[in-house]
Amino acid sequence: MENKLNVAIVEDDFSLSTLLKSKINSIQGYHCDHTYIMIEDILKDNYEFNIILLDINLPTMSGLEAIPLLLKRFPNASIVMNTIMDDATTIFTALKSGAVGYIDKQSFDDNIEEVLESVSNGGAYMTPKIARKVIENFKTPKVTNLSDRELDVVNGILDGMSYKLIADQNNISIDTVRSHIKNIYKKLSINSKAQLFNMFKK
Q: How far apart, in whole angstroms, are the C-alpha atoms of residue 103 and residue 118?
């Protein structure tokens, strides 16, 4: 019997989860028989997995929070984020936490076989849209007089995030976000978001 790599899916959209499972099982060398809605369910299961496809927006725990827990429970598994969230802060958080792949859901159909092969052979994978986000982030000028938190806020603004989303992403209040923005404008000698975009997108 062929030795297939075992793939798990953590996804709260049942239709999408079913579709992914079917596609994976149609690819030679891979097998998917386990799908989960919540992180707690996969953590307490007795199965072992080679690859875990992980959504971020899940019912009880964010996929980002779950990465370290999953790697502790499945130390040999490759974690691939499969999500609609494509802002730079979220991408880098996932990669820094240990994910080896990041795919925007709209592209998964076109890339699934390449994704599985890349990570199962010890590589990493990002869809072109995500890779471009990463490259653009590195092209952002290094403004040395801004703190790490202020740079987080700047990146949030550049990604088009609302003040509330920036606050939630960084575990701070909206008032703190506004305070950071005021300090950023003062340090950079600018007065508007438009000037901020011009400064960081050149």
A: 13
Within 8 A by CB and 6+ apart from 165, the residues are: 156
Structural domains for the chain: 5-134 (3.40.50.2300), 140-201 (1.10.10.10)
E-strand stretches of 37-172:
51-54, 78-83, 101-104, 125-126
- Which residues, 6+ apart, have CB-to-CB distance to 23 below 8 Å? 109, 112
- List CB contacts of 155: < 8 A, sequence separation 6 or more: 87, 88, 89, 137, 140
| Full-model pTM | 0.69
Q: How far is CA 86 from the centre of its chain?
A: 7
Sheet strands side by side (includes 101-104): 30-36, 5-10, 51-54, 78-83, 101-104, 125-126
Rounded to 5°, the CA angle 46-31-69 comes to 40
30: enclosing H helix or E strand? strand 30-36
Query: Tens of pLDDT along 127-180?
Result: 888 888 777 766 655 555 788 899 899 989 988 889 999 999 999 999 999 999
The DSSP letter of residue 4 is: P
CA 195 to chain centre: 28
